[in-house]
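Reopening closed ticket. The problem is back. First fold of the pair:
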Amino acid sequence: MAKPHIFIVTPALAKANNGNWLTASRWAGFLRERYRVTLALAWDGTPCDAMIALHARRSAASIAAFAAKYPASPLVLALTGTDLYRDIRTDADGRRSVQSATQLVVLQPEGLQELAPELRSKTTVIYQSARSLKPLAMSLKQRMRHFDVTMIGHLRHEKDPLTFMRAATHVKALRIRLLHIGGALDPVFALHAHTTQSAHPHYRWLGHLPRAQTRKRLKRSHLMVITSVMEGGANVIIEAITSGVPVMASDIPGNRGMLGDDYAGYFPLGDSRALARLIDLAATDNAFYARLKAQCEARAHLFMPEREQTALLHLMNNVMDACR
């Protein structure tokens, strides 16, 4: 008996090396255990039994076409970031996608608060995951010359890279080194990165790096910083926690949904001075650093691949069975 066919639409493929691609690729791998899977930028009309689409606005054309051709078939829409926190309020295509979907997925529980009550009944929370890396021993990190603080993400408005760069002006602890990984999608941010690097040698912009190299650098870091304006459920938080690296995060719903309301490492959105104070505190106060580390370790079980795969297969099995 042939396996049912699921078509996954993602607004980015491997070359982009961004969160949507990582999610789509991982989900395709999880589903191939029980389903035949096609992964593409857009639906080309290929006959299939169900669709999973990532991002309400950017996948809107595929969602509309599939819903028109297969109105009784499962159409699962994963709200992955800017669509959840912006587009479904301001963009007509994004709103239509949400209405067309038979099931919605958000990547952390705070995402439910962005949806109208009538949509929550068809919404599932699925935490993303990453393969765990054995953390470097604290004794080794304490002997390292630098206290490395790493930010990972392409330089674009939604990631607010300027807050990280401006923090370089305010950090005081001598050992601190700020490492910035990500390609410049806006040349203005590239200019700022070069200027910051010239003025503050402890800030280094490393540009785009392959994923394996990025995870290796992250594992050797003492902290990971995420300054984003909006996030659906950031992969970089998961990769930090599953590498034993605590996080400093902008105080936004998407980060709270990942790290919990009581997490000690939040700073006000866009506040580079507050971020710098937290970095200095983590670099100089062993008790504070240990608290961050313990809080992250307590969340690690949420981001295990087995948990994500079980949740995704459960969702797809249920929606497929409901349509038989």
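Second fold of the pair, where the issue appears:
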Amino acid sequence: MPRSQPRKRATIREVAQATGLSPAAVSYALRGMQVSEETIERVRQAAAELGYEADPIARALASGRTGMIGVLCGSLEDLWQQSLAIGLGRALRDKDRYALILDAAGDPARERALALQLRDQRVDGLIVQPVDPAAQFWAQLAESLPVVAIGDGLLGARSAGEVVFDNRKGVTLALEYLRGKGHRHIAVLTSTRPSTPDRPADVHVTAEAERLGLDIEVVTAPHGLAATTKAVRELLASDSRPGAAFCFSDSIAYGVYAAASELDLRVPGDISIMGYDDHPMSGLLTPGLTTVNWDIDGIVRAAVRLVVAAAEGHNRRRRIIQAPELRERGSVGQVGVSPR
């Protein structure tokens, strides 16, 4: 039996002939640009019937764009950042872009190497939640590539956009809440390394603790559950155990829950716990984790809008500030009041 010949790829000119449009109009319609919704639907239907598939290499050569957006996460052990990466990938796909997602693993040196690698792979833009927002290389990178930062702005860099957390307000919200519950001795658990001491949230927590008259103990804790549990266990077993733990990510807070359980400590009777990003799992814990919500869906929409606009040459640099919102559940107790 003779072998069937592979089907010839339909061309954009054939789609144009089938629709009565010019090749340029078909190209715009396939990318969802500069034509009506009716035309877009008509062209896409004709393309599907003809079996037309865009040649990504030809398109990249013609436009100078690859259709790829780099997404560089600070640490994908952080469950909130996993959710962020998923949201960005799906939102970019809706804009006919593909996300190339990489993990800096909390390491500033790895972050730099991966950012430069993404640039060399000629991505059209980069979305980053930086481990080291004050690193000098960001300024140079932003000159050659549209960069949108999430969480913290990039010091000295002319980025294409920023979706930054109002960490001053978020830290104040959390510490004032803990103080209002009577807590004075508080452990602050952060993934920040000694090599990146100037991250805004960590700077604000020290200043706010002093203003509020709080005794804080800053502890470095990774995002991974097993490693965080190990780091926190010694802290909770101490005779000078703090009354509350304020964690700069909900993933770190889960490690505090785990360590407390291993030591037969009650939450919040023996240790109160507060998070900082409101991961969906936080409402499923017993008791639920009191935390700070940053509207992840809004962050995704804003970051994708900024990076796509910049990749298309629309240089409207914007700084969007995300306001925090307290999610009060049951993990923070009132000092001096025994839980029922």
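Update: turned out to be a display glitch only; the data is intact. The longest helix spans residues 79-94. The chain has three domains: 12-54, 68-166+295-324, 167-293. Please close again.
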